[in-house]
Amino acid sequence: MSEIAAGGVRPAWQSTAGAGADARRAAPDARRLLQLVLAGLWLLDGVLQYQAFMFSKGFSDMLAGTASGNPGVVARPISWDATLVGHHLAALNAVFATVQLLLGIGIAWRPTVRVALAASVAWSLGVWWFGEGLGMVLTGDVNPVSGAPGAVILYALLAVLLWPSDRGSPARPAPFVAARAVGTPVARALWLVLWLSLAYFALLPANRAPQALHDMIAGMTDGEPGWLAALDRGAASLVAHQGLAASIVLAIALVVVAVGVYRPAPAARGTLVLAIVVAAVFWVFGQAFGAIMTGGATDPNSAPLLALLALAYWPARAVAPAPAYTGPARAEEGMAAS
Amino acid sequence: MIPSWILDIFAAIMLVVAAVSAARLVAARPWQHRTRPAALADIDVAHLLMAIAMAGTLAPGLRTLPDGAWEVIFGVMTAWFGYRVARDAKVSGVRALAGGHCAPHLLHAGAMLYMFVAVSAPAAHGSGGMGAMGGGVGGMGTLELPFLALLFALALVGYCIWDLDQVSGPGTSGHYSLAVARVAPPSPVLAGVGASARPGAAASGTASAPAAAVPIAEPAGTAQVPPASGPADGTGVLAPWVATGCRIAMGVTMAFMLVIMI
Question: Which of A4, A133, A296, B205 has the fewest CB atoms within 10 Å of its CB?
Answer without folding.
Answer: A296
